[in-house]
């Protein structure tokens, strides 16, 4: 059963578990639709994570006790009409793994004992689930990695990670949608813009989507608008 805790006067957090797990992520995804459908514009924002969901509500129209009651009723309701269609969407992301952009590839090879070709194969031959959209629009946390390429974050984060960089950290992979500080191990770069300004979520991918990385060469990377 989900655990609901207050964060402040107009925000609650709903916990569905305590680990990164496909079943828990599915519960979070279903809950987004259940709560939106049942509560409508009483809810002002929903921010999903791996195993929880932050819900902000209109304090002028309801209070914490009423909203918790409504959320529990929504989560206990028949979910057939709120089935999450995002899990059926597979997004292909082209990635150039060349040495000019794979800033930490050698370090990843040293840590894993694999050669560059094997790291690329392990990374690109897997389908990932979008577990959460993170600290900036379009920053999607994807899991889980092949165990052979699980590596720790960098001990000293970069002050500026190039836009489009594809990185590894623990059992996750992600794409930097903009140039920001970061400590992920960078193994490639996509020419795609991960922020979609035409989308309500601003992100090219959404929670629940599946992602596959497709290796491309330098020529295709540049033709698609990539910057070295």
UniProtKB/TrEMBL annotation:
Pfam families in the record: CT_C_D
Gene3D superfamilies assigned to the protein according to its UniProt record, in alphabetical order: 3.30.1360.40, Cyclophilin-like (2.40.100.10)
Keyword entries, A-Z: ATP-binding, Hydrolase, Nucleotide-binding
Entries under InterPro entries matching the protein: CT_C_D (IPR003833), Cyclophilin-like_dom_sf (IPR029000), PxpB (IPR010016)
Residue span, Carboxyltransferase domain: 2-205
UniProt-recorded name of the protein: Allophanate hydrolase
MF terms in GO: ATP binding; hydrolase activity
